[in-house]
Amino acid sequence: ALQQSCRHMEAELKDLNSSMTTPExxxxxxxxxxxxxxxxxxxxxxxxxTNHVTPExxxxxxxxxxxxxxxxxxxxxxxTELLDAILEGYPKSKKQFxxxxxxETDEDHGVVLPATV
Length: 117
Known about the structure:
Helix content: over 70%
Subcellular location: Nucleus
Structural class: mainly alpha
Main location: nucleus
Number of strands: 0
Largest sheet: none
Number of helices: 4
Distance between the termini: 72 Å
Keywords: Coiled coil, DNA recombination, Meiosis, Nucleus
Strand content: under 5%
GO molecular function: double-stranded DNA binding; recombinase activator activity
Shape: elongated
GO cellular component, one term: DNA recombinase auxiliary factor complex
């Protein structure tokens, strides 16, 4: 019975040692209150902001993006066609030609066409 009581007290001591002390809890509560206050303040600033994007502005940006995507595809297609025409009579491979001329492709840099919104 004494050993069992001792084990029980050791387990209780282990729990108490792993738990936070009153000053630690007070510091934690204060930090959480400051965090909560800053989040509340940020939320209020966001709610009261007058610089929200209007649907018209969003539509304008989407149209511009579509225009730029079309232009990018058109220019890339023209460049590819031009290079393919040059490479028809060229004795070396496409990769060797690009290295000699110093052409960097979108694929070399991992650039992809952005998705439409």
